[in-house]
């Protein structure tokens, strides 16, 4: 029976496309706890020696997560218990408000007659929770759901999966699963942290990091709903919430680009967060269709977030393929980036001559033209807007471009180009191209094409048009799940590199985050563009390598699927905590734009990132030599990196594990034979770098260490020792870097 609720309670419960839930005890199912504490009177439990997981035997909601090694219960209150939500709009029935009049949700906590069975096999136990039909505020519907919890013997990882069979006449647009709710403090409010790639926030501060202007719910979703795949949001689909000694690891084991959104809410008082975490999937399950979630892992582990990152890294074994990047690029400090501001292709040679003096041997030129897709054609200036290619006759045409790139190669500088095949400027298209754009474009659920707007030639006179689309161009967004488009784009990129003499391609916007509803494409999944994009990158890279074994493919965005087929991911905006990504995938080369800022350049180097040097802005055409103090610093960084190359090229980034440091920004790197503390003064004042280092953590042999600095220092020193802790103090000049290198104990 569906209970009566007030209008206010109804608004909360039905949610506007997945908004807030019941806020008061009066709006809760009768069997839920009313006092904000755990109620396990109706618990069905699955457990082993490490963890215990309890579900409500009537609703199937997850009501208990117990870490048996510490004795802590992570779910502090069953008042907010949940496990899934299905968002199912019902046309003709006004169940929602604001812009979404037809919102309707099927929520686990409204169910009361699930069936639970237990199974056991050679590996462990399985709890199976079944719902023959689901009820909502709109009534009962023939939508069947089954979810399983698998807990293997000797493991602290529970694996959850949901199966939905939609026998109703309505479409299920979104699924939240699993929804882990009611999580309280793990260790202590002061030390608990939320971590995801790549962000770290104190649990008590999560409320401060959401878009308040876009939320009207009583319990709004935090962090502006991170999503994956996305080049600037989540690089990988996992998170961790916990303290220094234990925590909750929550991850998707998906191996394709199915869109995920991470939903985080805080139901508690400001001083005592009560959190919920859920993965949301834009499933779009039509009538008569079935859907199965990816395998989702919930682990109650020992250790801090590094243990969670190590779990995710271990899960990649047997699937993840590391990009075979040429050694010369792996050794590089970074790239220099510029537009063709001289309107002359020979600017390539001039910039190459300049940057090589400072230890930079990779130059990326930017030439988007006006997003005309046939980049191999001569410029057509007879129309407005013009149709611009990559070989402008006014800049010297193909012969001068080839000569400039050859001269750069003779100087020891590799050259590359960035342009877009993903975006097609509507105003420039010929009738033939317009028809192709209509055929290949990503489309909204309404059937309208998705538009983006990226005018580049604004010269500081106006904001970028993507921020203010009342002016500027409109660009179609191509769907990478369409074979014809992929063949078109790959062919054009390869020919531009061949005919222009480039050895590097920076592919703009290689990580796709849009859903596609095009009826012409007949996608099996609306996530088709993001599912197909890694395959597109793989095909592009294979073609480039066939043409030139030393070719380099850079792509915009930091993201795990694309990283297998890129020599480097590249971002404009540094995420808050790149160390999360660096520690999880230490072999991946990640690049970030860096302005003329020595402190920032130092920080990026210590983090193991490549520098994409933007000298005072792309559009001014300035050389590195136009900033002599910064240029001299770049030369010192290049020399320092060369002297410590084994750690950057073959080492693993260990973050700050085993290290306590002050007076400098410092991280740890490890190779088979050595371990190094890399430290940098980020300020224009002198400082004293002090460290306490746990030698037992890395098997360090003695207190002796080598000290290499970016100002030319190279000496042997002895650290003080107290038990297993090595202590040192090193004076650093303004913006100076230091490598403290210890030898590890030899095996055997």
UniProtKB/TrEMBL annotation:
Residues making up the signal peptide according to the UniProt record: 1-32
InterPro entries: TAT_signal
Keyword annotations from UniProtKB, A to Z: Signal
Name recorded for this polypeptide: Alpha-galactosidase
Organism: Candidatus Sulfuritelmatomonas gaucii
